[in-house]
């Protein structure tokens, strides 16, 4: 069953030297997470698989040392704050299986060290920002089962480290010549769905 209760907001006030918070796979709920942005030394935050029913605070953009942010399957609502684009050291962003709205912020393209982007099953709409093609360390990009429209930006094809791209089950996404390029890259080891 795991831990049941509320994410203690006092973490942000009393434990300023915390580097890792892993409260995943519990039954935690929360009225807001902004207080955690005071944890300037935080490198990993995993609150996945909980019942948070809250939004991602824009203040998370102040967690300048953050390497991994995992909020998967936690009933997160609202939009992805553009301020997350300020997390220069972020390597993993896992928001899959939440109740997000709006689009993918173009500012995420500033995450030059990001290796894993998982936005599967989030309810996101709009087009895929071409700025995601600036994430030169990106190895895995999961955008399936959303409401994305338009085409796959050419810039994504040119990502040097991309090994896995999933855009399946986006009814508004048009397969274009870029799709053919991605299909051709399968021979070089890219998995494309």
Notes on the protein architecture:
The chain has three helices and 15 strands. Helices cover 9% and strands 23% of the residues. It has helices at residues 11-14, 154-157, 177-185; strands spanning 4-6, 20-22, 27-29, 44-46, 68-70, 77-78, 92-94, 99-100, 116-118, 125-127, 140-142, 147-151, 164-166, 172-174, 191-192. Strands 2-4-5-7-9-11-13-15 form an eight-stranded parallel β-sheet, with helices on one face. The protein has a three-stranded parallel β-sheet with strand order 10-12-14, with no helix packed on it. Strands 1-3 form a two-stranded parallel ribbon. By secondary structure, it is mainly beta.
Continuous helix count:
3
Gyration radius, rounded: 17 Å
Shape: globular
How far apart, in Å, are the first and last alpha carbons? 35 Å
Strand order of the largest sheet: 2-4-5-7-9-11-13-15
- Structure summary, number of beta strands: 15
Largest β-sheet summary: 8 strands, parallel
Strand fraction equals 15-25%
Mean of pLDDT: 88
The level of helicity is under 10%
Order of helices and strands: EHEEEEEEEEEEEHEEHE
List keywords for this structure.
8-stranded parallel sheet, 3 helices, 15 strands, mainly beta, globular, 193 residues, 3-stranded parallel sheet
What's the short story on this structure?
With 193 residues, the chain is mainly beta. Helix content is 9%, strand content 23%. The strands form 4 sheets. An 8-stranded parallel beta sheet has the order 2-4-5-7-9-11-13-15, covered by helices on one side.
